[in-house]
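S.,

Sequence below, as promised.
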Amino acid sequence: MNELIAKRYAKALRELVPEKELPDQLRLLRELQASFEAPEVDEIVRSPLVRGTEKFRLLVEPLKEKLDPRLYRLLEVMSEKGRLDLVPALAEILDYEIKRLQNRFEGTVEADSKLPKEKLAELESVLAHYSGAKITLKQTGAKSDGLKVAVDDLGLELNVSKSRLKSELLDFIQRAL
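The prediction came back faster than expected:
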């Protein structure tokens, strides 16, 4: 439910702000989101005992000079409606929308050994050809018994593991006999 409401606020912000200014708005939202990660602030935001105007005064007012007037007004409306707790979700949705508009996405690669940059570039080009988007891959430190490539924003996941190949090969041999 909250995600649907946050999508409406993101849509409103997208309509108010030109596309080229959206990354700046996201950066400002990320700064505000960082303050929400403190347990004390999260408790204040979620508390029904603290009025919306007080939450707004504590969290958004100190950033008034940094914030774009349109974003400031949107946060003010969110505060009036008791929706300041949606700022982290709004930032995530806006981040996705910017990636979608720019047709650029990020993904992760998990492998049993570190892949050379050439192989990562080759994977990026294959995925770009397949998806029609610019994809940047980063290798994570997670170990896998094969290769796993994931681009969450596009819903792409490729997984090739030694154990799975072994079990499928054995199944194929058993069926052939």
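Helices lie at 2-16, 22-36, 39-46, 52-59, 69-80, 87-102, 117-131, 162-176.

Coffee later?
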